Amino acid sequence: MPSDGPQKRRFETTAAESTKSSTGRVILVTGTAGFVGYHCAKFFKKRGDGVLGLDNFNPYYPVGIKYDRAQDLEDSGVYTIKADLNDRSMLDHILQEYKVTHVLALAAQAGVRYATKDPASYVASNVAGFVQLLEACRFCDPQPRIVYASSSSVYGLNTVSPFSESHQVDKPASLYAATKKANEMIAHTYHHIYGLSMTGLRFFTVYGPWGRPDMFAFSATIKIHKGEALKIFQGPGGSELERDFTYIDDIVQGCVASVDRIPASTKETAHFKVYNLGNKDPVTVTYMIECLERAIGKKAIKNYVPMPPTGDVLKTSADVSLAEKELDYKPTTSLQDGINKFIAWYDAYYKDGLTKEMASYVFIRVPAMFDYRRLMAIFSIPKTVFVANRPLCCPPGPAEGKAGVSYKRLSGILDGRFDLSPVLDFGSLDRFMTSETPLAVAAAQRLLQRKGGVLEPLKSPYEYYARAALLQVRARRAAEEMIDLQPKKDADVW
Ligand SMILES: NC(=O)c1ccc[n+]([C@@H]2O[C@H](COP(=O)([O-])OP(=O)(O)OC[C@H]3O[C@@H](n4cnc5c(N)ncnc54)[C@H](O)[C@@H]3O)[C@@H](O)[C@H]2O)c1
């Protein structure tokens, strides 16, 4: 929280206003700038609960939509504090100062495939951040009740369908799933030791208005509008991926029921429960596209590609009988109705066209392992890397460390969208291009000669820029194609 002065006063006044409650409930919703948190917070406020939001507004996907969600919530009386879950003193302050009765813990690093690119963010938010939140809760008196987001991904390699809470879930297929499973186990520990009441909700692929741009319904809509091909994953033997797509209002209904029914956090009353919140009606991704085509009024271009080894599972299908019985959960929205509502929102939200940020957003799915030869073939620069300045052209050797090999710089040139670090294995490259000073060129040449490499000096920095621009275009295309990359048995793989 701001340390002193007018900012602190504004913070406290707004938070105090936001937590005013006519129902006795004061709910801290984490992840209110996110998709599900936004909708839940809005619902709670409308019925009179005191609600305070918390979000770190991280740039995993374009932040413009996060700020718009938070602004819309603020207009409805819900204040979102910009803070990280790992800010323990902030959590202590919020929980105690505003006498929080319930926590709806939705803030997390979401997304299955991104975990192959930035695994640390999952550990920081989903594991460390979650523990900080529970630690802060356990020191409250009275302790709040906690409902938190798990995920259908915990079913991982489970082959028994539909997925039931009674199934064993110890074979996660992604780091994301492993952190969500960890949440459930950590929740059990805090329930067991400190008597915290804990309800975990395994959401199944949520979609709807204000949805996530990294998810299929959203990204497919943008591509259909632009006339770009949709990549559709196929499993073994050309089988189609199936998902239990669940409309946001049905998820909100399940979250609200969980908050309303969770017993008090005392040793005597606390419970530990986990529920599936799905739609119990899995459909193929192709069917989802047909719904989008009808709602948008335009045909999609479909490109079926093999599923990359990044942790997606072939089919998710929810058995929601436990939630039906204990939460009175009844998903009622058909996929076509839900998609119609999503498209109506999308058309209104982007009535003036996509924002610049959204128009340039490319969600990179980086395979866990690269087929090096294939990657270089896509770039048509076998065993060559374009380099410009000293930090980029320094192969391992005496000068390394002084100059450093900056892949950050190179991926910056590539718009930060494509992590080239595995390519920068200088040991396996034999050609470098540089526009450096003659002295630096000579030094690099000496280093390269020792391992039989070739250095190709460029005539001027302009030539480099021209080539870098070309590489950028290729990288963009490659990024689009990455999905096709499959490790070959005989290839060098990372
Ligand atoms: N949307 C789905 O289909 C789906 C499916 C299964 C599970 N979930 C889970 O539901 C929850 C909500 O998902 P969503 O779709 O709204 O995702 P989202 O990414 O839109 O929202 C999550 C929000 O949490 C915030 N956040 C992340 N790390 C944080 C941190 N360390 N501190 C503070 N804020 C942080 C992000 O900025 C984001 O706004 C997540 O826990 C997600 O894993 C979602």
From TrEMBL:
Regions crossing the membrane: none
Pfam family, one: GDP_Man_Dehyd
Occurrences of domain NAD(P)-binding (ranges): 28-341
Keyword entries, A-Z: NAD
GTP-binding is among the record's keywords: no
Family from the record: Belongs to the NAD(P)-dependent epimerase/dehydratase family.
Record-given protein name: UDP-glucuronate 4-epimerase 4 (UDP-glucuroni c acid epimerase 4) (AtUGlcAE1)
Organism: Cladocopium goreaui
Source lineage: Eukaryota, Sar, Alveolata, Dinophyceae, Suessiales
